[in-house]
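Priority: low. Protein: DedA family protein. Input follows.
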Amino acid sequence: MSLELLSLEALENLAHEYGYWVVFLGIMLENTGVPLPGETITLVGGFLAGSDELNYWLVLASATAGAVLGDNFGYWIGYFGGWPLLVRAGRVFRIEESRLLAVRTQFSENAARAVIFGRFLALLRIFAGPLAGIAQMPYPQFLLCNLIGALSWASVMVTLAFFVGKLIPLEQLVTIVGQFAVVALLLFCAAIALPIWLEHRANQELEG
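Result:
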């Protein structure tokens, strides 16, 4: 699929034609692990609801249901086959398995927060489900965190587009939200990577 087909204008046209199905399927596929612009799709749905072209509650329900279902698919994909794939990818990029294990351990310790708040972070929204499966996060805990995160994220995105979309152009809103998600991701990665780096440095000093 070309990038042109995923432009904001194209997404608006799809939402006009297929309505809630675009929101549901777009979010579901993104949360399964397919790199689709789910955040933008949700904002488009909320914007159209604010323009009285779609129903606010149905957009919210579609986004929430798609997020919950998609993350469940992603979780089981990660649980049953994600770790071997990650190890093979690590070999390609010359990342030692011990480093991957350290990252998995660090993610496991922050899994609940990652699943709930990861939806607000660029990329992590796509990979939180598979990573939770790879880390073998207990499924009941994942299910609860997944539902809380999906409802919180969908509520914020749809409501934001519903009201703010009346004040500023949709393109500007999408840009602002995207920039926030990238900054939040960088901060989250730093919070995970810094303890690993400090521990690695301390081990090197002891060995030295």
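The chain has one domain: 3-198. Residues 3-198 form one domain.
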